[in-house]
C-alpha cells in the first residue's frame, strides 16, 4: 500500500529536501506541498493524505491551527516538523492532535521509518523522547477539569499502565515492571486508548499529565 504524504512548510527548500528523501521509498508518494497552514488544510481535504509533515511557524494560519482542523475533519495523522531545543509550541501541537514530531535534521532512513510508523497508527515519540517532550511543556499547562473523570473508566491495571506510559516506559519495560508479557502490556495500552477515546500513545501521555495522574519531574 502506498503511503500518501502531504508536506507543509513555508520554506521551499525544506519541502524539496523532504520530497527528495521520501522519493527514495517505493511505498511513499508525496501528494502535495503547502506553504502555509491554510493551504495545508485545503490540500488535506482534496488529496486525502495518510500523513502530513507539518511545520509550526508559517505565515497566516500556523501549523497548530492547521493540525487541529485536519485531525478533526478527516482520518489523517499529523507529524510536527520542529527543532526540539528552540520550538516551545510543540506541546500545543501535540494537544491539538499531532501524532508526534520530527526534527528537521532527521536522517533519511529515520524519516521513512517514521512516516511508515505513523501511517500504521503508531505514535512518533520514542519512550525516551516522550518524557522529555511532555515534561518540558506540561509544566506550563493547567490541569484539564474532566481528565480525571475520564480516567475513571480504566481498570486499576490499565491505570497503572497509563502511568508507566506517561513516565516514558516502552511496552517491554512496562511488561518487565509489572511482570506480564509484552503482548499483554500492549493490549492494556490499546484498551486504555480505546476507552479514553484518544488518537494514540502521545495523546494518552498528554491526558495522564492533564489529569494529574503523573506530575512533571516526578
TrEMBL record:
Gene3D superfamilies: 3.40.50.2300. Residues 147-212 form the HTH luxR-type domain. Signal peptide: none annotated. SUPFAM superfamilies: C-terminal effector domain of the bipartite response regulators (SSF46894), CheY-like (SSF52172). It comes from the Bacteria. The keyword Membrane does not apply. Keywords: DNA-binding, Phosphoprotein, Transcription, Transcription regulation. It holds the Pfam family GerE. InterPro entries: CheY-like_superfamily, NreC/VraR/RcsB-like_REC, Sig_transdc_resp-reg_C-effctor, Sig_transdc_resp-reg_receiver, Tscrpt_reg_LuxR_C, WalR-like. The modification 4-aspartylphosphate is found at residue 55. One of its GO terms (biological process) is phosphorelay signal transduction system. GO terms for molecular function: DNA binding. This is Response regulator.
Amino acid at each position: 500500500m502506498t503511503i500518501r504524504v502531504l508536506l507543509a512548510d513555508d520554506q521551499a527548500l525544506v519541502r524539496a529536501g523532504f520530497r527528495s528523501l521520501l522519493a527514495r521509498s517505493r511505498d511513499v508518494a508525496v501528494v502535495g506541498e503547502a506553504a502555509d497552514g491554510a493551504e495545508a488544510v485545503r490540500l488535506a481535504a482534496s488529496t486525502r493524505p495518510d500523513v502530513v509533515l507539518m511545520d509550526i511557524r508559517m505565515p497566516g494560519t500556523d501549523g497548530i491551527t492547521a493540525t487541529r482542523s485536519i485531525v478533526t475533519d478527516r482520518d489523517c495523522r499529523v507529524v510536527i516538523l520542529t527543532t526540539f531545543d528552540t520550538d516551545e509550541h510543540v506541546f500545543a501541537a501535540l494537544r491539538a492532535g499531532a501524532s508526534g514530531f520530527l526534527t528537521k535534521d532527521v536522517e533519511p532512513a529515520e524519516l521513512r521509518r517514521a512516516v511508515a510508523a505513523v501511517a500504521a497508527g503508531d505514535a512518533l515519540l520514542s519512550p525516551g523522547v516522550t518524557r522529555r517532550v511532555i515534561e518540558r511543556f506540561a509544566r506550563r499547562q493547567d490541569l484539564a477539569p474532566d481528565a480525571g473523570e475520564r480516567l475513571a473508566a480504566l481498570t486499576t491495571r490499565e491505570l497503572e499502565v497509563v502511568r508507566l506510559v506517561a513516565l516514558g516506559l516502552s511496552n517491554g519495560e512496562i511488561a518487565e515492571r509489572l511482570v506480564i508479557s509484552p503482548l499483554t502490556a500492549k493490549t492494556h495500552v490499546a484498551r486504555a486508548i480505546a476507552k479514553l477515546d484518544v488518537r494514540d500513545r502521545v495523546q494518552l501521555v498528554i491526558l495522564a499529565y492533564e489529569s494529574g495522574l503523573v506530575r512533571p519531574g516526578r
